[in-house]
Design goal:
The protein has about 100 residues and is α+β, with helices and mostly antiparallel strands. It has helices at about 1-25, 35-40, 40-60; strands at about 70-75, 75-80, 80-85, 85-90. Helix 1 (about 1-25) crosses helix 3.
């Protein structure tokens, strides 16, 4: 869970990092980080970061191919070989029925 939070914060702050790096290499004299951040177009960077974060969330969420009815089979050793964990699709007819 913490990885997901860190990824979202990273993509949110990525435009600001690029802006600071751009200023650092385009200016002849480095004015300091706080001076650069005070003069930065923070609203535009905020909007760009939010758009990038939402785009990232959308792309990553659309790449999930698992059905909620899939059954996870953990990694196991079969005939002396390690088989990685995987999911098996179970048709709804084989799933136990919930009692009302």
């Amino acid at each position: 869970m913490i990885r997901i939070v860190i990824e979202n914060i990273f993509f949110f702050l990525l435009p600001t990092f690029f802006y600071v790096i751009w200023i650092a290499f385009s200016e002849d004299k480095w004015p300091g980080l706080m001076t650069v951040l005070v003069q930065a177009p923070l609203v535009r960077l905020f909007v760009a970061g939010a758009a990038l974060m939402l785009l990232t969330l959308t792309v990553f969420s659309s790449r999930t191919y698992n059905d909620p009815n899939d059954v996870y089979v953990p990694a196991s050793v079969v005939n002396g070989k390690l088989e990685p964990g995987h999911t098996i699709h179970e048709p709804e007819s084989q799933l136990p029925k919930a009692k009302p």
